Amino acid sequence: MARRVNSYVCIGMAIATTFFSAIAYTAAVNANEKIGNVRTLPSLQTRARPPLQPDTLHIGMLETQFLKYAQDNNWAAIATIHRDEYTVHKLQPGGEGLYALPDRKLVYVRGFTANIYFEHDRLVGIRLTPDNRDRPLTASELLTLVRAWFPDDVLSVLYQVAPSDPRKSIVETLIGTIPKAFEQDLGKVSLPFCRAIVFPSPVPVNTLSTCNPNT
Fold this sequence. Notes:
Elements: H1 2-36, H2 63-72, E1 76-83, E2 86-92, E3 97-100, E4 105-108, E5 112-119, E6 122-130, H3 139-149, E7 155-161, E8 170-176, E9 193-198, E10 210-212
């Protein structure tokens, strides 16, 4: 009888050992599968952002959101001025490449320094002036940049072009609005302003573009 009990005990222990070995093997396989899985990033494709494009901007975005964009794209800080509820950051862009829909036309964020205006910590406008270390934007490149930067906004763009410049290089630009506290920053060069209204795609970027000496 004792031998039979011992046999049952041995059989039970063997079954238990096999059962736990199977659990351990399954867990090890699952762990290896998790470690060995090829991780894929979620698709960045949206209506307004082609794959692998950096985050884009929008009027009204928080100051912290914009500064995160600037940090992620290696913008360099030059100066910051506070006046009551208004703030302006003067920055040197990092040269990131952006695509303007619908044709995914590539434009690089370079050739200028940028004054970024905030009211109550919300983005209201951007003023661009040429950077002598790089070739300035043309009117076409500027409007393409605005479309790529702000893919979902309808924006007013004021810009100056020297009449004698065959390349039509931009002298100064205001995207959006400039707070009254900083209005004296605008129009340092005595040239007429052109105005363009840039709509989201698929409307052409040069829609409603006019040059008016009295603007």
